[in-house]
């Protein structure tokens, strides 16, 4: 990203900004409209008016990017990475919270994929058609079949992509609503979300994609033709400014933490707890609405059946998938535990106090690492016998023992006489025994902005909003009336990747990458010293350690001042070093010292340049 404002003002840069702003005359009204900002910028840089103070602290200049990704969750980070992998050079991620990850971090299950090498290794027969069929059935046939087909077709590639960028999805398991073992999880059977977010964060860092934390997108701006041309944001200091761009990828997630919005679309969920993180407030829905986007299935809000009502901890479906059953306060089973989330949630709400217990034995505990975190959190009761467990949780122990005995019989016979559960992995007869109280809570908002298979955001009339792409929970159509466990992660990786590629293609065919063009116009020599330097005139070379090895720079000193810093040799990643080169070299020239702030998202490269300049200046003292 090119940071143009604050410390780095230059007449040429400002002129370039004004040119670019003129092309983006927003139709929208914002606190600081681009038109106003352009006027400010041009005022500020009138040659005779430019003072030293203004050079140090000019205000109101827009930042620039080719692609702005709104939301640093699974879909947003995936999209940003894919865009850069496709050749994008100027992508930034905006994240309103203090850390990336969003709801993706809380994802416990895994990634559903059909036709993977991992399934093949286990001789699991699956197909794109079967995956589509299961997803449509789970979604009550409300899903957009075209989107579901694209998701299924690209699902095996999604597993490979995650693994290629350093992730670990290599164990295949059974999950609710799937006909075969299809959910891909980390090899240590831990929750998928933390692994995925860690992997994406590392890749974003490696590629040097700037992530602006605690920076909230407020509004997406469009030009007179209705093309996306910028985003208005508010940063952590409460400052509002505009980022000009060619494309926006909306990846703001759902609205499961916005109880007003939930109740607006589904009044019977009033008072429900939520599994969502605090940032899932539907901002993307509101921003897209202002641009005339169409929405689908907004009333389709999923509850997750097994959430601790006190701590809101969600027990992954994997616990049931690996063998656990559900019992009510009378100690009896009441549903096929592997039914879809809507069916299981509805069944729980019919039980005494609208709660139930997740019941399992030592063998299930040992099969799933995620269970250890629930035990550690103190939300699981344990006992040596079913009778003692019943006593500990206030349920008739004899009834509990009878239920387990009957279930073990079904498991041995391979037939669940009562609820037709098909997959019964274990007999649940190995002490200790465990019970965890649970109830349904708001989990996933299946509705959202309408997209086509290229992730372009559509209007009611079917036309696209040029330059606007969306992926992940902010979109609607993929999951229909009920999302299958494991399909959210497939959704964010498959459509996040498509959004990244589509946005990059759009940028290429709509004026190309502005970074290099304006770089060429502005150049680091555009920066002017704000203080007098104290160096010997001459040209010096120095080397420092960057992200991908040594960085060699050439520093020119004239009249005692550093007047230019040129990167001679480096192995830094294209599309990343430019941001560091521009930001750091200009700051060095302005402040006449090698010790300046690193450019966010390109820290290693920035530090390498500073080290190299420091080494060069050692000879100039
Ligand atoms: P998905 O699974 O679709 O990626 P997540 O919930 O994992 O959804 O991620 C969405 C991210 O978007 C969250 O980290 C959330 O804080 C962020 N977000 C939501 N609204 C905004 C906004 N207005 N500006 C910047 N980030 C936002």
Which secondary structure elements does this structure contain, and how are they paired or packed?
Layout: H1 11-22, H2 34-44, H3 52-56, E1 63-64, E2 67-70, H4 74-85, E3 91-94, E4 111-112, H5 117-121, H6 128-138, H7 145-153, H8 155-164, E5 171-173, E6 183-185, H9 192-207, E7 211-212, E8 216-222, E9 228-234, E10 240-244, E11 247-250, H10 259-265, H11 283-290, E12 295-296, E13 301-307, H12 317-321, E14 325-327, H13 341-349, E15 356-361, H14 362-367, H15 370-376, E16 381-383, H16 386-393, H17 397-413, E17 433-445, E18 448-450, E19 456-458, E20 464-470, E21 475-476, H18 487-509, H19 514-522, E22 538-546, E23 549-558, E24 561-569, H20 577-591, H21 603-619
Parallel strand pairs: 1-10, 2-3, 2-11, 3-7, 11-20, 18-21
Antiparallel strand pairs: 4-6, 5-6, 8-9, 9-10, 12-18, 13-17, 14-15, 15-17, 16-17, 19-20, 22-23, 23-24
Adenosine-5'-diphosphate is lined by residues 70-76, 94-97, 102-104, 216-217, 251-253, 279-280, 283, 472-474, 492.
Task: Describe what this molecule looks like in 3D.
It contains 21 helices and 24 strands. With 621 residues, it is of the alpha/beta class. α16 packs across α17. It starts with 10 loop residues before the first helix and ends with a helix. The chain binds adenosine-5'-diphosphate. The site of adenosine-5'-diphosphate has 26 residues, from α4 and β8.
């Amino acid at each position: 990203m090119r940071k143009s404002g604050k410390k780095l003002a230059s007449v040429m840069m400002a002129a370039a900004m004004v040119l670019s702003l003129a092309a983006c005359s927003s139709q929208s009204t914002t606190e600081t409209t681009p038109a106003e900002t352009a006027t400010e910028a041009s005022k500020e840089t009138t040659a005779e008016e430019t003072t030293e103070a203004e050079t140090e602290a000019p205000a109101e200049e827009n930042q620039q990017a080719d692609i702005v990704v709104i939301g640093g969750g699974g879909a947003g980070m995936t999209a940003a990475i894919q865009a850069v992998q496709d050749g994008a050079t100027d992508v930034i991620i905006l994240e309103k919270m203090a850390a990336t990850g969003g709801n993706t971090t809380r994802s416990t299950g895994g990634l559903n994929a059909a036709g993977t090498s991992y399934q093949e290794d286990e001789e699991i027969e699956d197909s794109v058609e079967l995956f589509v069929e299961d997803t449509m059935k789970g979604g009550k046939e409300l899903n957009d079949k075209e989107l579901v087909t694209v998701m299924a077709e690209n699902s095996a590639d999604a597993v490979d992509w995650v693994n290629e960028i350093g992730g670990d999805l290599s164990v295949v398991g059974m999950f609710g609503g799937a006909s075969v073992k299809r959910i891909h999880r980390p090899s240590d059977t831990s929750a998928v979300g933390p692994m995925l977010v860690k992997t994406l964060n590392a890749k974003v860092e490696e590629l040097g994609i700037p992530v602006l934390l605690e920076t909230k997108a407020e509004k997406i701006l469009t030009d007179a033709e209705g093309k996306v041309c910028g985003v208005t944001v508010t940063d952590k200091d409460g400052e509002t400014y505009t980022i000009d761009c060619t494309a926006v990828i909306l990846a703001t997630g759902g609205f499961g933490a916005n109880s007003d919005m939930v109740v607006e679309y589904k009044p019977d969920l009033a008072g429900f707890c939520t599994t969502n993180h605090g940032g899932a407030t539907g901002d993307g829905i509101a921003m897209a609405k202002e641009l005339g986007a169409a929405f689908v299935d907004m009333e389709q809000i999923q509850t997750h059946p097994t959430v601790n009502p006190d701590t809101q901890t969600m027990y992954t479906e994997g616990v049931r998938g690996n063998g656990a059953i559900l019992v009510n306060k009378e100690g009896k089973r009441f549903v096929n535990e592997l039914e879809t989330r809507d069916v299981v949630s509805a069944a729980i709400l019919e039980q005494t106090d609208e709660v139930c217990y997740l019941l399992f034995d030592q063998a299930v505990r040992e099969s799933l690492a995620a269970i250890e975190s629930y035990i550690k959190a103190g939300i699981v009761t344990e006992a040596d016998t079913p009778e003692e467990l019943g006593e500990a949780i206030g349920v008739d122990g004899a009834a509990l023992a009878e239920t387990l005995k009957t279930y073990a019989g079904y498991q041995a016979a391979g037939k669940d006489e009562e609820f037709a559960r098909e997959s019964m992995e274990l007999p649940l007869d190995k002490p200790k025994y465990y019970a965890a109280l649970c109830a349904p809570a708001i989990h996933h908002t299946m509705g959202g902005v309408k997209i086509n298979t290229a992730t372009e955001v559509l209007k009611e009339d079917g036309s696209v909003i040029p330059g606007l792409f969306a992926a992940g929970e902010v979109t609607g159509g993929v999951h229909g009336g009920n999302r299958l466990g494991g399909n959210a992660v497939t959704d964010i990786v498959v459509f996040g990747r498509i959004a990244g590629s589509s946005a990059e293609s759009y940028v290429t065919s709509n004026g190309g990458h502005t970074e290099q063009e304006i770089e060429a116009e502005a150049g680091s020599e555009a920066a002017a010293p704000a203080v007098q330097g104290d160096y010997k005139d001459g040209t010096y070379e120095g080397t420092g350690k960057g992200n991908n090895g040594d960085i060699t720079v050439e520093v020119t000193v004239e009249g005692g001042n550093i007047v230019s810093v040129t990167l001679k040799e480096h192995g830094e990643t294209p599309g990343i070093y430019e941001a560091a080169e521009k930001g750091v070299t200009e700051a060095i020239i302005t402040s006449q010292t090698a010790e300046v702030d690193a450019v966010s998202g390109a820290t290693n490269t920035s530090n390498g340049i500073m080290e190299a300049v420091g080494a060069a200046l050692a000879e100039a003292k």
